[in-house]
Structures are given as structure tokens and as C-alpha cells.
Amino acid sequence: MSSLNAKIQDLFNEPACEKNRGKDAKARKRGCTKPLTPGAAAGGCAFDGAKIVLQPVTDVAHLVHAPLACEGNSWDNRGTASSGPTLWRTSFTTDLTELDVVMGQGERKLFKAIREIKEAYAPPAIFVYSTCVPALIGDDIEAVCKRAAEKFGLPVVPVNAPGFAGSKNLGNKLAGEALLDHVIGTAEPDDAGPYDINILGEFNLSGEFWLVKPLLDRLGIRVRASIPGDARYLDIASAHRARATMVVCSTALINLARKMEQRWDIPFFEGSFYGISGTSGALRQIARLLVKKGADSEILGRTDALIAEEETIAWQKLAAYRPRLEGKRVLLNTGGVKSWSVVHALMEIGIEIVGTSVKKSTIEDKQRIKKILKHENHMFETMAPRDLYAMLSRDEADIMLSGGRTQFIALKAKLPWLDINQERHHPYAGYDGMVELVRQIDLAIHNPVWRQVREAPPWECQPVLADESPSTNNETTAVQAINFAGTSADDLGEC
């Protein structure tokens, strides 16, 4: 555990972090933040974060060294998509039991599981995840992985990110360290060129990176490795030969981007493929970095021409939605890169942002939001569910964009809701993705169900009958009941 503790301290002393750059040397040694204590890792544990980053490597076998529940709870926790291999969809676990713990059979069971996976599936590599139980009983997964790699002749990568180490975000970074220590740089490509790039922190949610990759293909830019979205093991192993890197989610993999720049002189920048101007800015920045690294400067002109063409098409498609959505108010309860990139994308078509969460956002993310919104009161770090509900109940927003965990707050307030996080089923990246996002917002806001659910139920409305006098005649009462059943909404009294 001492090596894990040292690595954690190193991760919290991140020079590329804007917050750390403003500290003096003494304060910087204390790190960015204090790791969460066991049981307090709100939003997911370190193991969950590592699995999120690495599971989209689609041709690799992902083996979780843990009791069964760890793999069951973490399986399929992201809506990523693959264009080929499906091995990543298969769950592998050592299924540690109490007897294994008491008898000290953990390492032996892990070695046996690696052998069985190799014989049955012959993957190019196996990723082995440590969790709380094997870390507590002292299983040395790094030694087992090293021995298995020598024995079976394939890479076996230890991912040392037990859940009690900290939060999900820490697990993201520990996964990046595992790639840096055991994968990147282990294979040499025979087709390296001046237009190769890496994209870090892109998860290909709902296949949205497939809306961006054709744009890069038209520019002659090859994605050497997309980590982790729709990735292949050999692509990641040869990622050190790329000429530039774009970081989509800096809170997850900024440490990987910085260390790749230090080791292999690969410059990086943080950008977004959300929104029209965001996508255009990212394409231009990629082209500029490639030119600095030796690519022909003519790519700058081709990039501008492509952007002009795609923006024209996108704005023509969005023109139909502007009259329907201009002035509509959106509450954005998400975090990270989406806290500013989606905000900017929506404001481009006249949507008003009444609030955006900056949880898990970096200092740079928050600075971007301040420039975009021009009002810090629209930013909130966290908001309790009751406060979100109160805000929506006061009719301060027309729709809420968030993850699935907070959808019921909007539904209880009888307001439209749209999934913007990893569980969504629609891609929102790139020019076409922006059009799709606006279309989904339009469908949600103008869905007639919201008008219906806000109406008072029929049993709370009193009918206006011609004869209000009481009657003891059963036949007359029955006739009144029949008339009430056939009464239209216009005939009903105030509700």
C-alpha cells in the first residue's frame, strides 16, 4: 500500500492543474485536496472510476479481483459504444469468498482466472483490477500479473485502484497511471505520420465520437488513440507516437496528458466537441498544434474551409428550432467539461441558462463559465434535492438537463427533463450532435404530456349542473351522474 499512497500523493500534486499553479511550494506539497475517507466516496469509489476509464478498451479482457458484487455493481456503468470487438461486454471476476480470504487463496485464484481467460478468449491483453478486499488482505496483484505475463506470453496489466483509496475521479487518474506504466510506449507503429493525434477523456457515449471522427478523416487527421472511447489495446500501446493531444475531460486524465508531454514531447490542449463554436475551436486548435509539430501549414486552410461548410449546414438546420426555443430557460445539473461546453452550446441558439452545476469542474472550467454567463450567481457547486425541487416548483426553469439520478426531481416538479450524462441514448458531440441536442430539448419542452400533468385531476373539479337542488330521487341522481360523465372540460367549474 505504500506505493499506492505515494502515487496518490503524486496525483494530487498536479502541476498542470490551475489551482496548484497558484500555490506556493509548501502549499503545493499538501496536494489539491484531501482524499475521501472509506465510505465517503460520494459519486463512486476509486475502483469505479478506474473501471469507467478502462472498460471502453474494447478488445481487452477486464478481470475484477473481488467479491462478486464489485463487478456486478460496476458492469455497464457507461453508455459507451464499440465499432468492433465485444469482449469488453463480458464480465470477468475472481468471485472471492470468505473461504478464499480466510485460507489466503486470493492470489492463486487470480492466477487461475488469468489462465482461463487466456485459453478461452486469447485477448491481446488482460486488465486486472484490485478492489478493497484483496487490498486489505494484502494480495500482491502486481506480482501475480507479472508472473502471468511471463507464463502466458501476453500483457497482464495491474490496475491498483481499491475503492477505499478515494473518489471516482482519483480512480480515473489511477487508471491513466496504469496505462502510462504498463501500456503506452510498449508497441511501435509502422505507419506513424505527421497528422496523428490522441484524444483523451472521450468516452464515445452513445457513439457520439463517431460524429466527430469523420470530420478529422476529411482533414487527413488520424486518431492514433482515443482513450478510452472505442479504443484498441495496440492503438493505446502506440499512442506515444502521436504529434498532439486533445483532452476532452481534464478532471479525469490531465495527469496522463501532462506526463505524455514530458516523456514524448506531445503537446496537449483542453477542448470540447459540444456546440458549434466549441467543435470549430477544437478543430482549429488541433490543426495549429500539428503545424507546430511539423505538419504542412496547408491544413489550416482546409480546416477553415471544412468549418465554414459544416457551420453553414448546422445553422440552417437549427434555424427551425430558434423561434421555438429562444428565451427558454434551462437548469443544467451536471459537472466537469459539460458544465461550460453545453452551456455555451445552448446559448448559441438563444436558450437562457438559469443555473449550472460546477461540481467536478476544474478552475479553468469555472473561469470559462464566468466568461460565458457573465454572472457568478448562476453557478452552484452543489444543490440539495429539496433546493432543486423548490427552484423548479417556482417555475424558474422550463427544463432540467442532468443525469439519471436527479431526473425524478424534475418529474416530481412536473417539468421536462433530458438526460445529458453517460446513460443517455442520443449523441450530442460535433455539429450533427448539436442539432440532435436541440431537437431533443425541443421535443421534451413541447411534449403535450407536461401540459396534461399540470392540469388538476377530474376529481378535484366540481361540475356546473343546471339543477343544483338536492334530490332524494335515486333516478334523478343517476341521471345527474350520467350527465357528469358526459360533461366536457368547458362545462366544469373552477378547479
TrEMBL record:
<dbReference type="InterPro" id="IPR000318">
    <property type="entry name" value="Nase_comp1_CS"/>
</dbReference>
<protein>
    <recommendedName>
        <fullName>Nitrogenase iron-molybdenum cofactor biosynthesis protein NifE</fullName>
    </recommendedName>
</protein>
<dbReference type="InterPro" id="IPR005973">
    <property type="entry name" value="NifE"/>
</dbReference>
<feature type="domain" description="Nitrogenase/oxidoreductase component 1">
    <location>
        <begin position="45"/>
        <end position="443"/>
    </location>
</feature>
<dbReference type="InterPro" id="IPR000510">
    <property type="entry name" value="Nase/OxRdtase_comp1"/>
</dbReference>
<dbReference type="Pfam" id="PF00148">
    <property type="entry name" value="Oxidored_nitro"/>
</dbReference>
<comment type="similarity">
    <text>Belongs to the NifD/NifK/NifE/NifN family.</text>
</comment>
<comment type="function">
    <text>This protein may play a role in the biosynthesis of the prosthetic group of nitrogenase (FeMo cofactor).</text>
</comment>
<dbReference type="InterPro" id="IPR049939">
    <property type="entry name" value="NifE-like"/>
</dbReference>
<dbReference type="GO" id="GO:0016163">
    <property type="term" value="F:nitrogenase activity"/>
</dbReference>
<keyword id="KW-0535">Nitrogen fixation</keyword>
<comment type="pathway">
    <text>Cofactor biosynthesis; Fe-Mo cofactor biosynthesis.</text>
</comment>
<dbReference type="GO" id="GO:0065003">
    <property type="term" value="P:protein-containing complex assembly"/>
</dbReference>
